[in-house]
Every structure is written in structure tokens, then in C-alpha cells.
Amino acid sequence: MTDSPRSAVGALLIHGLGGTQYDLGLMHKVLRRAGVDTHALTLPGHGSAPEDLLNVTAEDWLDAVQRKYRELRPLYPTLHVMGMCMGSLLAIEVAKRERHRDGTLVALASPVFIDGWSTPWYRALRYLVYRLPALARRMKVEEAEPYGIKNELVRSIVKAKFERNDNFHYRWVPLYCIQQVDRLRGWVKQNLADVHCPTLVVHAREDELTSLHSARFLDAQLGTRDKKLVVLENSYHMVCVDNDRDQVAQCVLEHFGIDPALAKPRRRSTAEPAESGLND
Amino acid sequence: MKASSWLQPLLFAIIYGLLAFFSIDAQDSANLSTLIWPSAGILLGALMLSPARQWPMWMLIAGVLHTTASLTNSRPPSMALLFTTADLATMAAIAALWRYRVGEACTLTQPRSLFWFIGLVLVGCIAGGLVTDEALEWLHHPTAHYGWSTWAISVGIGCLTGAPLVMAWGNFRVRLIGGPNRQNLLIGLLWFTALLVTAEIAFDGPTSTWVFGDTNYELTYLPLLFVVLVAMVWEERGTTLALVTLALVAGVNTLQGEGPFVFEAQQRSLALIEVQGYVGAAALMGLTMSAINASRQQALQLAAAWKVRFEGALLSSRHLMYEFDPHSGKISWGGEVQALLGLSAASLATLDDFLARVHPDDRQPFIDHAQFNDKGSDEILTQSYRFRFRCADGEYRDAVVTGAPIVDFDGEVYRVDGLLHLESELTMVQRV
């Protein structure tokens, strides 16, 4: 994450609710390898403890992203804005409000509708609880399997990180926070025709949090003609860390006008046995 | 963000109190014991779920409400205190022993913890009933020795239905993803509705008479089927809900003098005791079903965790695992076949497929050394064999298999298992 411009191209990467830059997997590295300056921000209430989310609103998140965008905007002739999950809602909304044109927009797994196959049946009841603010602030909404990940090995790593209390993602968020995301979803759904920058929408067919309906909605409503919808066939919600992560990186590079081959995944190979190894 | 210190006790007091004041009306006129006592289950569940430091609070609330309900229902003070003490002591003993036996696993979804729960409830309630009966005699109650069973059954069935309900729902956490989805809800709702309808037909006199012309004892088996079906779809929480619903329908109708357990010449108390026996049997069946379901899921999770470990080891060591079935000629592969060989596992599904890619000069030695043909020797030798394998790019690469047959109890080769890896180019060059 660079602080001063070293390239003519910059990218602002926005993480999701309760998350960190881990949500975006190797995207920073891939982009930097491709010569793009990447910038990230920790959204208000994140990176510390879930309780801190009680003091923030959707406006705070949006303000923080807008501030960062305005800070970066003069530094780069081309500035791309990319977000994952709730971060993609913020990216869309900022692109809309700032009339973003000198760069592109990437919306990864945008939860315009929270209707994925693994969302619990009682999800609609949250609107009732919102009417009881004290309860909404007290109620915890937990992360659970499959943690947005289809790859069992990666999922086991995420589980282990949770068990170790690694500070890469909150284990739970207050329901109040989901209320803020719902408000943000409401804003995003309006005036999507005002988004005029080239836009890439990436969504997994099997996203367990938000169905493909969200991506199709964006694809239909966005004002720009230069838009592309990529549907991933072997991932769940966390598209940047799941099975299709390399495909996502390639799509993003291609969308940025960079050779997608630069996103080549780390190759495995076998080293020669060491001198004092078992062959001796 | 800590759970409010007053919310849980308030909820407990409301539920316990309502049940206590409702049940105290249904009292055996002879031995003064209530005929139903679901409050016991609520207290037991709270104790089983809570750390010991919270026990005095639950017991104080329960004790005050129990005694107050007794006194307002004209129980003599000595009797009121006796039943309160018996209830508190029995529940505390069951909960303490259960927690001691199952340790950290404060759940009823594991067969071991469930069987300890059922066993302790049965033994505890019988012992509690006997002690209460002795105490009644010591207090010179005129109808002492009328029987310990009324207290034992009412408290025992209250425990079997109430405690699992508290345990299941006390652990409920709202989730963003995971947990029961809409499809599970709808399927479970279908079985739950069927349970309600069949319970109503079986226990509600007018409905049963309207449908079948009479109340039939045989019909009481019908709701049990749907308790099991609900348990399979809605798991522990759904099971407890189904059991409470069945207990409510059966209990309320029997209290009203309707249903298959009520006869004209029979006392209402006997009918209530009998219907509780039925509810108890349903509870045992539903909870067992739920525990079997949960333990099956745990076993699946364990198997998945091992699968991930094996796959991680194969991935890191860049090996493939193979299993050859000599009877079908098929090979099953583990590991990243596509990444390592550039071929799909499906394209190497049989020995013939595989041999077609082995260098012609290496085929027969490969079959011999990899022991794909059993020679019937006495020794089972794990061997490594190097051979040339044609990868997806058409180039031959040196590959090594290391494996041995798995021999069954009559000496026949059951499978041939082993590992395969490609040698690095440098190793190949050095050897040449």
C-alpha cells in the first residue's frame, strides 16, 4: 500500500463489513506487481473490536471513503475504485456521488440484495428488530460456516484464524451495523444511472450471502455502457480468496487495461533435495 | 455489548412464574403434588447452561416464585416449602452431576451428554419423589404414602421437555450466513403443521370424533412420526419446539377432559399422569433422534477436516494419491491431478487410461513393480518404481510411484494404494 504516487495509475481498494484488507486477498500484490499504486483504508469501526462498530453509521463509512478518494484523486491521472462486499457498495456510491470518470469501478460480490442460499430464514425479521434500537445495538450477528469460502482448505485456514483470534475479520457484528448496510444498500439502488465510468461486476453464482440477482441488477441499472459482468462458477462470497481468485485477479487486470497474464498465480515446484537430506 | 444483566433473569422469572402459577392449579388433591410441573425443566435448563456462580440467582428466583404460587393456591406453608426445597435440591443435584459428567460439552446434541441427562433425570426424579414422600410422612400429612410417582412423573416430564428447550434456545445466535435456510424452514414447517394437525386429531375430542367418529388411542402414534421428521429438518431447536407443542396439545386437551387418555370412570389426575408418560416417550425419541442427527453431522465435519489435512499434505509435497481397484480396473485419485500432470482425474480413471500414458518400454515393469498384478507372494513389499509418463504437453517426464497392495483377510489383494510424484527436471538430468 503506497503512500506517494509512483505510478500514473492508482487504485483504491475498500474492504467489507467487519473485515480488513484480507477480504481482497492478493489483489494489492497483484496490482502492485502490475504497476498500479494501491491504496487502502480501514473503515471507521474496523480493525479493533466489534463493539467499535456501534459508534459509526453508513454516512461515516461513506465519508471516509469519499475523503480518501478526494485525497487520491489529484495524485493520479487514472484512479480505479474497487470494493469487496460492503466495500463494493461504498465504491459504487462514491463513484456515483463523485461522478467518477477518470478510472474504472470494480464491484466484487456486491450485496445489493441479501438473499443468498445460506442466509437464515429469519433474515427478514431484522427489520422488526430495527424498530427496537436498544435491541438492535445489543444483538450480535455471527459469522459462521461456510465463511463465504467454497475451498475447504482455505475455509479451514479461516476457521483456524478465527480460533486463534487473529484480527483479520470480526467474528460478529452488531445487528445495528447490518441496519447501516441496509441503509447503504438503499442508497446504492437509487440513481445507478449516474454511474458513468467503465464498470466490472464480479459475482459468484454460488454466493451464499447475496445471489446473482444483485450482480444482474447492477448490470441492468448502471448508467455506463462500458460494463461487464463476470460470473464465477467455483466460489462462494469471498471471491478474492476462494477457488476463482486467480480468475478474479485476471479479470480486474484486464478491466484496468493491463495484461492479465501478470496475475499469474504462484507456481508450485519441487526443489532438489538438500545436501544433508535423506538421500545422503 | 455484554448481555444485559437483568434481561435473562427477567425472562426466566416470567416463563418460570407463568408455568408455575398455571401448573399449581392442576394439583393432586390427595398428596398435594402438582400433576404437571414444566417449571422444573426451565430451572434445570438454566442451571445446566449457567456457570455455578449464577446458580444462587436462578434458584432464588425459582424458589420465591414456587413458594408464592404454592401459598396462593392454599398449600400449607410447610408443604409449600417442602415442595420448593425438593424441586430446587433435585434440579441442582441433576445439573451438578450432569455438568460434572459431561465437562465442557454443555449441549444435549451429543449422545453421551444426552444419555447422562436422561439417566440423571430419571434417577433424580425417582429419588426426589421418594424423599418428598418420606418428608410428607414426617410432616404428618394425612395422605402421606399416597405415592411418590406423581411428583416424580410431573417433575421428570417437565425436565425432559423444558430443559432441552432452554438448552437449545439459550445457545441461539443470530447469524449472517449459515444455520437453517428458507428451504429448511419450509420443509420443517410442513412437518410441524402435520404434527399440529395430527396431535389435534389425536387429542382433541370433538375433532377426533368429527374425523373418526371416536377418540382412538392408536392415533397417538401419528404425531410421533412428525416429531421425528421435524427433528431431522429443524434439528435440536425444532425438536424441542415440536415436543413442547405436542405436550401442550396433549396436556391441555387432557386437562379439559378430552382425548384418548380420558375415560368416564377415571380421575383426571390419572389421565394427566398417563398422558405425561406419552409425552415423556415422545421426548426421549425426539431428543435421541436429534442427538443422532447432530453426531452424524459432527462425524461428517471430522471427516471433512481429515480430508482437508490429507489434501494439504498432498498439495505441499506435490504428490498424488492413487487407489487402484483390481476388480474393476478403476483408479481413484487424490490431490491436484490437473495441476501436477496437466490432465484431469477423469482422463486417468482406469488402469488402461494410465498405462496408455506410460512409456511402452516401461509398461510391463511398471505393472510388476507397482504390484498392480498380485503375484501371491508371502511378503507385502512397499516398492518405488521410476517410469516415464507422458504429460498433457506430450513430453515424457520421470515419475515415481511408491505403494503396495492392501491385502484382505483371505490373502487377496483388495486395493493397491500409493503415492505418485513427478521428478524435478534437475533430478532427471543428473540421473542421465
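qc> The two ends of chain B are 69 Å apart (CA to CA).
qc> done
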